[in-house]
Amino acid sequence: MTHIVNTEQATAWNGPEGAHWAEQSGRDDAVNGELTMALLTAAEIGPRDHVVDIGCGTGESSRQAARYAAQGRVLGIDLSAVMLEHARAAVTAAGLPNVAFEQADAQVHPFADGQFDVAISQFGIMFFTEPVAGFRNIGRALRPGGRIAFLCPRDMAANAWYVAPLSALQTWRGSGGLPDSQMFSLADRGRLTEVLTGAGFVDVRPRPLDVPMGFGSSAGVAAEFYLGSGPVRSVLERSPELAPERARDILLDALRPYEGPDGVLIPGAHWLVTAGRP
Ligand SMILES: C[S@@+](CC[C@H](N)C(=O)[O-])C[C@H]1O[C@@H](n2cnc3c(N)ncnc32)[C@H](O)[C@@H]1O
């Protein structure tokens, strides 16, 4: 792996958080296909394009992008060895010869100048310690006239998939609002535009996209997902008085209102952002 500066993120995504996501990614009912399709449509990937997928995780968006870039190539970049292991296995199973993965920090990775036509990211680009530097590094890796398309969350308050279960736990603890999360670092439209233009991108277009997030077939499955996720584990670590069984019950109560015939779907408010390299 090349040099990393996002050490906290690397630790998190190489530890239980990465293992948790890798384990969950095999489940069809956890896939948010509508979001991936919206991202890839916005990216306008051509058949010969060379694409980089930033924070590709277990590689769902990389695999889908490879179908668009059938005579091109896709490189998925991620900090997490455990997630990339899953991504590589899935690419082999799908028989996609034009996808490769590299464990690297996209903020500082020494990509060759102009090596990609398109950069994409599905919720993998909000974690840079220095966002302008990170986006500048990605912009440098794009050819002149190349483009970026990515998804990131809008306001925390509008993302019930994050707020509803965590608030239920916080309320039980008698604790106030939710702590800030790096996940929402690009939620503010002005800030988002400032970061991208500061990094040299042009024609920056954030479009609001409201698509619910899927968390499995039932509230029970969703509660298990949340119990293993970073934000909930961090609440539990700070609350020794909250037994895991009690936490599961609290989560079940919070998640049942979102259970329906298509499983647990909880409102999500995202930005679908496109921008170009001049
Ligand atoms: C919320 S997950 C999204 C994963 C995947 N794109 C998906 O949609 O399932 C965020 C991912 O970004 C990766 N990530 C965070 N910061 C990164 C960085 N600086 N460079 C590369 N990957 C990073 C994490 O390792 C993690 O896999």
Fold topology:
Layout: H1 7-14, H2 16-24, H3 33-43, E1 50-54, H4 60-68, E2 73-78, H5 81-94, E3 99-103, E4 116-122, H6 131-141, E5 142-153, H7 160-173, H8 189-198, E6 202-210, E7 213-214, H9 219-228, H10 230-237, H11 244-255, E8 259-260, E9 263-266, E10 269-276
Parallel strand pairs: 1-2, 1-4, 2-3, 4-5
Antiparallel strand pairs: 5-10, 6-10, 7-9, 8-9
The chain binds S-adenosylmethionine.
S-adenosylmethionine binds next to helix 1, helix 4 and strand 2.
How is this structure best summarized?
By secondary structure, the chain is an alpha/beta fold. It has 11 helices and 10 strands.
Question: Would you mind describing this structure in some detail?
Answer:
Keywords: Methyltransferase, Transferase. It holds the Pfam family Methyltransf_25. InterPro entries: Methyltransf_25, SAM-dependent_MTases_sf. By secondary structure, this protein is an alpha/beta fold. The chain has a domain at 7-155 and 184-215 and 266-276: 3-Layer(aba) Sandwich (Rossmann fold). It has helices spanning 7-14, 16-24, 33-43, 60-68, 81-94, 131-141, 160-173, 189-198, 219-228, 230-237, 244-255, and strands at residues 50-54, 73-78, 99-103, 116-122, 142-153, 202-210, 213-214, 259-260, 263-266, 269-276. The strands form 2 sheets. A 7-stranded mixed beta sheet has the order 3-2-1-4-5-10-6, with helices on both faces. It has a 3-stranded antiparallel beta sheet with strand order 7-9-8, with no helix packed on it. The structure holds S-adenosylmethionine. S-adenosylmethionine binds at residues 6, 9, 13, 55-57, 60-61, 77-80, 83, 105-107, 122-124, 127-128.
